[in-house]
Amino acid sequence: MPNLSVRLSVILNLVPESDLVADIGTDHGYLAIELIKSGKAKKVIASDIGEKPLKNAQKNIEKANVSGIELVLSDGLSSLNERIADTVIIAGMGGEVISGILNRSNKIAKRNNTTFILQPTTSPEFLRRYLYDNGFEIIKEVAVFENGKLYSVMMVAFVDIKAEKEEGFYYIGLVSPKDDVGRLYIGKQRSRLIKNISAISSIESKRTEYNLYKSAFDYIEKILNI
């Protein structure tokens, strides 16, 4: 079995020691295998919406000769049913998709003492906004650079307190400008905002949207200059 990618290694490192981890959208099962091998998890529920990924994961689990992984054909958090996972991982999906998974399984997502490790591939600002609008809090966030792409990995907890953040926060979260990858990630979000601002700057009907983008841009400029 190949070594974990940089992205999956960061996710693994953020997982606290857990009795039960739910790996939602497990794909090839590599992360589930490493969770068991590293001792981070005593048991893993590895779910996926497709049968083919689960078959590939089964082969990889057999090759790795590990036990304690339960493969489940499931959409989102429904694989958990009444079981309470210490940690839930939802990675490699768009921010809107991850938000939808959490929203569809609201009661499961809002159980106390569950740590969520979330890694959006797109629309991270949508996911962060959803989290703070729904009583979650980002505890820690790490930027990742892999295969020419920049992502962030979030450690999240449900605290049952809704909060409104500055507009710019939704674009960069807790990513630190003090490390090289973090600065690249923040720079990527800055570039996105510049394009958005430029595209609508002369459209009067988009003035509210323009002001939000400009507010986010100013926030990021301040962070980069700290």
Provide structural commentary.
43% of the residues lie in helices and 24% in strands. α4 (95-104) packs parallel to α6 (124-133) and α8 (180-200) packs antiparallel against α9. By secondary structure, it is of the alpha/beta class.
Defining key terms:
seven-stranded mixed sheet; alpha/beta; 9 helices; elongated; 226 residues
Topology:
Layout: H1 6-14, E1 18-24, H2 30-37, E2 41-48, H3 51-64, E3 69-73, E4 87-93, H4 95-104, H5 106-109, E5 115-120, H6 124-133, E6 136-146, E7 149-158, H7 169-172, H8 180-200, H9 207-224
Helix pairs in contact: 4-6, 8-9
Structure in a nutshell:
By secondary structure, this protein is α/β, with parallel strands linked by helices. The chain is 43% helix and 24% strand.
Q: Please trace the helix and strand order, writing H or E for each element.
A: HEHEHEEHHEHEEHHH
Strand order of the largest sheet: 3-2-1-4-5-7-6
State the end-to-end distance.
Answer: 43 Å
Characterize the largest beta sheet: strand count, sense, and whether it forms a barrel: 7 strands, mixed
Helix and strand content put the structural class at alpha/beta
Can you give the helix content as a percent range? 40-55%
In the predicted model, the low-confidence regions spanning at least 5 consecutive residues are none
Q: What Rg, in angstroms, do the CA atoms define?
A: 18 Å
Beta-strand percent range: 15-25%
Enumerate how many helices there are, as a single number: 9
* Overall pLDDT metric: 93
Counting DSSP E segments of at least 2 residues, the number of strands comes to 7
Apparent shape: elongated
